[in-house]
Amino acid sequence: MSDTSILRIRDLSVTFPGDAGVVHAVDGVDLDVRRGECLGVVGESGSGKTVTFLATLGLLAPPAHVAASCLSWQGTDLRGLSQAAWRALRGRDIALTMQDALTALNPALTVGTQIIEVLAAHGDLPSTAARRTRAAELLRLVGIADPVRQLGAYPHELSGGMRQRVMIAVALACGPKLLIADEPTTALDVTVQAQVLELLDSLRAELELSLVLITHNLGVVGAHCNRIAVMYAGQVVEIGPTARVIDRPAHPYTAALLDCLPRLDRLDVTLRPIQGSIPNLTHLPPGCRFAARCTSRVAACDLPQSMRNVGVDHAARCQLARVA
Amino acid sequence: MTAPRPLVDLRGLSRHFDVRRGVADLLSRRPAAQLRAVADVDLTIARGECLGLIGESGCGKSTLGRLALRLREPTSGSVCFDGIDLASLDARSLAALRPRMQIVFQDPYASLNPRRNVEQIVGLPLRLHTQLSAPARRVRVIEALTWVGLGAAHLHRYPHQFSGGQRQRIGIARALVLHPDFVVCDEPVSALDVSVQAQIVELLAGLRRKLGLAYLFISHDIAVVAHVSDRIAVMYLGRIVELGPARAVVTAPRHPYTQALLSAVLEVHAPRSTRMRLTGEPPSPLSPPTGCAFHPRCPHAQEICRTTPPILTGTASGHAAACHFAGSFTTTSARLETVP
User: Fold this and answer.
1) Packing angle between helix A190-207 and helix A160-172, nearest 10 degrees?
2) What is the ipTM of this complex?
3) 3-state SS class at B100
4) Torsion angle in degrees (nearest 10) through CA of A217, A220, A221, A222
5) CATH code reported for the domain at A1-35+47-81+226-324
6) A157: Cβ–Cβ under 8 A, 6 or more apart, which residues?
7) Given CB atoms, is B311 within the 8 Å cutoff of chain A?
8) Domain A91-216's class?
9) B111 in any annotated domain
């Protein structure tokens, strides 16, 4: 299994100094992204899902403190990489689309300029004309009609779904092997969400991409990911094949999250909200971080929890989790 | 048989906005454009009823919510609240009616004044609309806070000290402090995390039962709407295209747009293969398509759809759709049947 992983994260921790003490945004995260897969990373705001990947890509500057026992991209150690080496890697091999397509695009530059900028920085295309042609191809690839004309459009002239497509085009400009999409559908209408996710699916097949979808929407991962990692208060609490995690969640938090979702096929069932709120990341309990809100809590939950295998490729950070 | 008088009665309601013309438009003598945000809407909401209103962004659902409260003036049509035509009221009489109709806003960050504490925020409607003394107001504020799961301990805190879900609770307390009959909930959970969203949805549902409230529940999330509503109205480009009992609309949609909306819902438990694809994005309301506004995206569109606007017509069970072919194509979503 392990030889197929292209990105490997082991024991990643990220802390930020805060007014009231050190904020433990990410704590001991182990993750692998495998070649060709779509990994969904789910969690609520503040669970550390975005910070995990910003840290992995070397995008966090002091005062953030990043530590890991292993961060490797296809065998290359990412820890302590020089700025020049990072620049060669990011954008070319690993691309990231930021949350919120409205603010992530530069409003003062045309769409074409923003794509060509990436091609000029990384690409091997010598002439402006060649870059322009490639930029138009990219827009066509992400399903934008009349791409040559749209190269001259400014972000404000495009709808939310179109902007998200442009962001994906920018990210794909240099043919990356891994695309990390941070909340690619959050600000979009449901019908457009479905279109963007289908686009990502088809691009993954067409370009042999590996994909990480960071989202708070379990619906997004349920329909589109091979594996799911569920994060809570800076830790991965459950990871496994999508169908298994959804049908047989091993961690009570995953089960509780699924119970919160309004389901069209169960209109009579009242939603069961998770009581309480996420713990303060400055003063984390030593034991299970979900224990205070957990309905299955026992005394031993106050001890630190480690990941336990509960099935093939399926693990959960809960001592009550059993092989199913 | 005479039906009981609805609490809220919207008749032929339309709202057009004039689009500002730039210098270039004036020089080229381009005619002033009009955006028809709400076009010819008839809706009623009974006492204690929750009417869900869904549609994509820009379809006019928020404008309709504001028209229902007369926070905006309609271009044409009428809004009756408990039998009183709001358009006939002068400012003073309208103000006297305001305590009975309130609104909860979408964004719990932008809708609370960061410089006021909870007592001031929730107590403001009481200061504006009642003659209550400060101690009496405090009693009412604490009552409303208790309803939403907060309490006297929070009176002197400021919005920044609360999480998004708690802020939304404050916004709900502010709407309820005057003991209204009718509350417009304008995307009240869209900005919240799923676990918090479930808390607020259940809170609103519980308060409705407890206080006998009527809601106009506006959301783009059909699953949330289906959970809280008695009836659902589906809006597309300013018009109601389907209206009916929540269960019927969700399990046996009669308009292809509703079917498409249901197919686009990303449900964790749903198999992906049964999706009905909807291509393209909603057309601009500045130049709506001729005939049925949905025809350019509709897989069933025929010639008549391009030329003749369909009229909202119903069945005996009160399930209406504005479609020339309503009910003649597969009306039951296959996806819903496959789920146990």
Assistant:
1) 20
2) 0.78
3) helix
4) 110
5) 3.40.50.300
6) none
7) no
8) alpha beta
9) no
